[in-house]
Specification:
Layout lengths: L6 H10 L14 H9 L22 H16 L3 E2 L5 H16 L11 E5 L14 E2 L6 E2 L1 E2 L3 E7 L4 E3 L2 E7 L5 E6 L12 H7 L5 E5 L2 E4 L7 E5 L5 E3 L26 H13 L3 H14 L4 H14 L2 H12 L6 H17 L3 H11 L9 H17 L4 H8 L11 E2 L2 E5 L5 E5 L8 E5 L3 E3 L10 E5 L4 E3 L1 H16 L4 H4 L38 H11 L1 E2 L12 H5 L3 E3 L7 E2 L5 E6 L2 E6 L8 E4 L10 H8 L9 H9 L1 H16 L5 H13 L10 H20 L4 H14 L15 H5 L19 H17 L3 H17 L19
Parallel strand pairs: 2-19, 3-6, 9-12, 23-26
Antiparallel strand pairs: 1-4, 5-11, 6-8, 6-10, 7-8, 8-9, 10-13, 11-12, 14-17, 15-16, 16-26, 17-25, 18-22, 19-20, 21-22, 24-25
Bound molecules: S-adenosylmethionine.
């Protein structure tokens, strides 16, 4: 049911905007309207924007990535060879000197331009617990070899320094031999800047750890020396001096621990607090943990660490710490209150809103002067409504989503959908009942996400993806790191993430999702210690095959250049990853801030498979581009649109792509040129092609806008605007029920009551891309009818436009102030 705007309301809207009622077309020129209109990128007035100036952008070519891949694969295949013994003193001095130069700014850190890191290359991770391994000394290790069955016991003897995404340090074994070590994907450390103090906290002189099944490579250079390469952070087992592994071990050199790191629990607490107040939450959690190692009963450190974990979104660990403190008998009421508050926040973070609400209310008994309990309880109630019934305040969400990179405070919602089997074979998503077009199916928050503004003026790490042989931007790279970090802090999530599809080189995941957990999940005991064995290569594959580029609902113009795509925000979502693809999908999805919203684009029967488009662009993409973009997923997409394009043939598709590129690059276009472009598009479809003609729809909608502008001076053009509008909509896949083009008000029409007059289009199916374009066409048609005083038709097309906006989850009321707000939900 799509409630209509009646004449009185429409006039109210116009009055609110100060628009003379005789010119609904003028609505589109009003600043307030334009502001809203532009914000959601319904392009105003048909003015074509020329392409923004290009910045320097040189992505690695496929060939270059292939060469890198060959090179590294060849190195990996080298036969094991002895490693050179190096001078302990020289090695330590070397790294310390390098670090001192970088820290003092004597050497430029690393170019901001970005450097490439290869992903998808062979790498190791150990799955054998330390207790099942034997110690090995550096003297017995070989280059180009993974020392299966062994561990290296070592301690840090030089300052650590980041290099690109890695951290380098020097470690010694008990015999006093040293080796350079390169640690990859260390969780918690921001790799885009050089956080010296955090690095020193993680790798202080004398830090003790064992490396499970270590791999040694030989560094390049005049004299190849051994380089310990730790691909997975879970291979590092941090050791306390009391650890049984160290029993009977004697070290040839004195303990290099710097006296400044010998602190009391209270001193660690102060250090932790100073990190916390400067926003270094990972460092603060480490400091509190070190304090607890000194005095395990110093419960205030546990309480403070819960706060650090909340900021890091390590919610289970926060809950454990806060619960431990709240159960203590002899704590003050303020400490009890803090513990309860942190329990409630952790429950909220874990999306257990009933429990969170209960704990927030529990705080009330303890005079919570500084806790906005009522606001929290209201937030919980709102989240319960959202997750239970899909009842969202879309107007508020849209407002919030305008802040780039905003993480929205909303609950996830799973509508009438479930994981099932795809008719294609394998897993997919299916409906659990009949569904109407426009219905909300899924609201999903990202597992991990990265926005481009996070990498402005910082070192940009780019990816040479050796799985796809494509270059990827800083967001895609950061996504992998962030996924590893999230797992490190929430080890129970590892099995969930690794139940996603990982490409053909990994075995197919089990059909169950969420998976049945194989063992009681691991718990975080120490922010440094990774408690699950992380297969970093698997994570790289999972991110490669499942990450989405965001489609921002407030910026529907997509990524018009390769550079924009390269820099696009990227996210890993769990349930959305289980949808199979179709270019002409039966669902439509958009992002509001970090949240992904999926709606049905068609009426669907119970049990029908749901598809969504993996394509990054919310606009139509020509066949050849789609094929390239989808190459990593499938050799050929079998959706209706691709079938139709293949039937048209390469030549027709190629020409249409050429005309489309021309259309999109033109800043201005004359009426004659617009008409010619429509003809050219139409000539390049095979006679057998059905009514859905996406490129033609683009050309026609362009013509509609130019005609509509001209019709203001020349009202006789009105019927042509409507006729072209109908064709544009039909070519986009919309079924038009009322083909009235005459702008004269007929007696029959006037005699019809409001109830008899439905929408002029069928609402059982919507286009899954270019919806904004269709809305724009409908608004133009409404404006022409309005100019001809046919208020009924104007209103009907306005309602149709509103339906289109609802498909985008954007209420038309937002751009037409004064219109009723009941349309904010579908
Ligand atoms: C992100 S997964 C999709 C869900 C997957 N079936 C699962 O079990 O999680 C992507 C993979 O599904 C398969 N797939 C999805 N859509 C497809 C399509 N239209 N044609 C062929 N394969 C498709 C491809 O193997 C693709 O790499």
């Amino acid at each position: 049911m799509h409630p209509g705007i009646n004449d009185r309301e429409m006039h109210q809207c116009l009055a609110a905007l100060g628009i003379p009622p005789e010119d609904i077309g003028g609505i589109m020129r009003r600043p307030r309207f334009i502001q809203k209109y532009t914000e959601i990128k319904l392009r105003d007035q048909g003015v074509r924007l020329s392409t923004p100036p290009q910045t320097r952008f040189q992505p690695k070519s496929k060939q270059e990535i292939e060469d890198d891949k060959k090179k590294y694969t060849a190195i990996r295949m080298l036969a094991p060879s002895p490693i050179l013994k190096i001078s302990r003193r020289a090695q330590i001095l070397n790294l310390d000197f390098d670090r001192a130069k970088r820290e003092s700014g004597l050497t430029r850190p690393i170019s901001l331009e970005g450097h490439y890191v290869e992903i998808g290359l062979s790498q190791d991770f150990s799955q054998t617990p330390l207790s099942g391994l034997r110690p090995i000394e550096i003297s017995r290790m070989q280059a180009h070899r993974t020392h299966k069955g062994y561990y290296l016991l070592c301690r840090v003897v030089s300052k650590a320094a980041p290099l690109g995404e890695n951290v380098f340090s020097t470690v010694e074994d008990p015999t006093g031999l040293v080796i350079s070590a390169c640690f990859n994907r260390l969780p918690g450390l921001a790799r885009t800047q050089e956080n010296w103090d955090e690095l020193d906290l993680v790798f202080p002189h004398g830090a003790l750890f064992a490396i499970r099944e270590p791999r040694v490579e030989a560094s390049t250079g005049a004299v190849p020396i051994g380089l310990l390469v730790v691909d997975s952070p879970s291979d590092i087992v941090w050791l306390k001096s009391s650890d049984p592994t160290l029993r009977g071990v004697t070290w040839s050199f004195p303990d290099p621990t710097n006296a400044t790191w010998r602190k009391t629990a209270n001193q660690w607490k102060s250090l932790g607090n100073s990190y916390f107040t400067s926003g270094k939450h990972f460092a603060s959690a480490i400091a509190y943990t070190k304090g607890l190692e000194v005095t395990p009963t110093a419960y205030l450190l546990t309480l403070n660490r819960a706060a650090s974990y909340l900021h890091l979104e390590y919610f289970r660990a926060a809950l454990t710490d806060a619960t431990t403190v709240s159960a203590l008998q002899d704590i003050s009421s303020d400490e009890k209150l803090k513990a309860l508050y942190r329990i409630a926040q952790a429950e909220y973070g874990l999306a257990r809103y009933e429990a969170a609400s209960h704990h927030f209310q529990e705080c009330l008994s303890l005079s919570p002067a500084y806790i906005p309990v009522e606001r929290w309880v209201a937030r919980c109630s709102q989240r319960i409504r959202e997750s239970g019934a899909g009842d969202y305040d879309w107007a508020h969400i849209l407002g919030e989503a305008h802040n780039t990179g905003k993480k929205l405070d909303v609950a996830e919602f799973t509508g009438p959908i479930k994981v099932g089997m795809s008719p294609r074979g394998g897993r997919g998503m299916v409906t659990t009942r009949d569904v109407k077009a426009g219905e909300l199916l899924l609201v999903s928050k990202p597992f991990t996400i990265a926005f481009p503004h996070e990498f402005v003026n910082t070192h940009r790490i780019l990816t040479a993806n050796c799985i796809t042989l494509q270059p990827e931007g800083p967001c895609r790279h950061a996504l992998i790191d962030r996924t590893v970090t999230k797992i490190a802090g929430n080890p129970e999530l590892y099995e969930l993430v690794t139940a996603l599809y990982a490409g053909p080189s990994f075995s197919a995941p089990s059909p169950d999702f969420p998976p049945v957990l194989s063992s009681p999940s691991a718990k975080l005991s120490n922010p440094l210690q990774v408690e699950v064995d992380i297969d970093t290569l698997l994570i790289e594959h999972i991110c490669t095959y499942n990450a989405f580029y965001l489609k921002d609902a407030t910026r529907l113009d997509g990524y018009s250049t390769d550079k924009e795509r390269f820099d696009a925000p990227s996210a890993l979502y769990l349930l959305p990853s289980l949808f199979n693809h179709a270019c002409s999908a039966n669902t439509i999805w958009y992002n509001f801030g970090d949240v992904m919203v999926v709606r049905a684009a068609k009426d669907l029967a119970e049990g029908e498979e749901l598809t969504l488009s993996y394509l990054a662009d919310p606009k139509h993409v020509p066949y050849a581009t789609r094929k390239t973009e989808l190459a990593k997923h499938m050799s050929q997409c079998d959706c209706e649109e691709c079938e139709a394009d293949r039937n048209d043939g390469e030549e027709f598709c190629g020409r249409r792509a050429f005309y489309l590129a021309r259309l999109r690059s033109m800043a201005e276009i004359s009426l004659d040129a617009a008409r010619t472009l429509v003809r050219s598009m139409e000539e390049n479809y095979a006679p057998s092609r059905g009514p859905i003609r996406p490129e033609s729809s683009q050309a026609r909608s362009n013509l509609v806008e130019i005609l509509a502008d001209a019709a203001r001076e020349l009202p006789s053009l009105g019927p042509e605007v409507i006729a072209e509008g109908i064709k544009a909509l039909e070519a986009a896949g919309i079924v038009v029920l009322d083909r009235t083009v005459s702008v004269e008000v007929s007696e029959v029409e006037l005699a019809k009551s409001e109830d008899e007059v439905g929408l002029p289009i069928r609402t059982s199916s919507a286009p899954t891309y270019d919806v904004d374009m269709c809305v724009r066409v409908m608004l133009r048609m409404a404006s022409v009818f309005h100019m001809g005083r046919d208020m009924k038709m104007a209103k009907r097309w306005l309602d149709a436009a509103r339906w289109g906006m609802l498909i985008l989850s954007i209420p038309l009321a937002l751009i037409l102030p004064g219109a009723d707000r009941s349309c904010s939900r579908v």
